[in-house]
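Support request, please re-run this one:
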Amino acid sequence: MITFYYNLAPNPMKVALRLEQMGLPYELKPVDTRKGQQHQPDFLAVNPNGEVPVIIDQDTGARVFDSNAILLYPGERTGQFLPDSTPVARGELLSWLMFIATGVGPFSGQAVHFKHFAPEPKDYAVNRYMYEVRRHYGIIDAHLSKQRYMAGETYTIVDMALWGWACMVPFIFGENAWEDLSNLKRLFDEISARPAAQSTAGLKERHSFRAEMDDEARQHMFRHLAAPAS
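Re-run finished. Output below.
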C-alpha cells in the first residue's frame, strides 16, 4: 500500500499514472496548495520542501519525495516500465528523465507562471521562458520523430514523466499548441488512451481543490511576494 500526497499539478499526475500503470494500491492524501496546506507542519514533516508529490511505502516505511525519484523508486523494486538492464539503455533512460526533470518541467512551470500569473512588467520573463520551453519541447519532438517512445521502442517511466507535462502544452502555448509538435502529440494521445491514464485523469473527481487564484491563493503559492529576496 502506498500513501500518495498529491494534487492535480503535472508532477503529481505523472506519479499517479505510474501507480495506475503498475496496479499498485494507494491511498490518496490531497494537499491543496492554494489553501496553503503544503506549509502546514504535518506536511513539512513528510516533505521539508513543502511540495507534492510524496509517497510513503507502507510495506517498507520508505518516504520518497520529488516526482522523478518517485518514478524511479517502485521501478527499482519491481523492474516494471524500465528498459533493458544495459548501460546503453540505462544511460538513455536517465538522460531523458533528467532532461524532463531539469528542463521541461521547470521551464514549463516558469512559462505558465510568467504568462498567466505574474504581475507586470513581465515581457522579458515571458519571452525568456516561452523561448526555452518551446526549445525543450522541440528537442523532444525531434527525438520522437525517430522512435516510438522516449527511451526507444519500450514504454517507460520517461514517457510517464513527459505525459504529466505534455498535458500543459495547450495552456502554455494556447491556440494551435500542437501545430509544430506532431510527434509529441502522437505519444501524448497514445498514453492518454491507456486505461491507466484515464483513471489518472479521473482523480479530479475524487477530491475538490481550490480553483480560484485570488490574493489569498497567491500568498500561499508565491510566498516571495511577502518576503522579497533582495
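The chain has a mean pLDDT of 95. The two ends are 45 Å apart (CA to CA).
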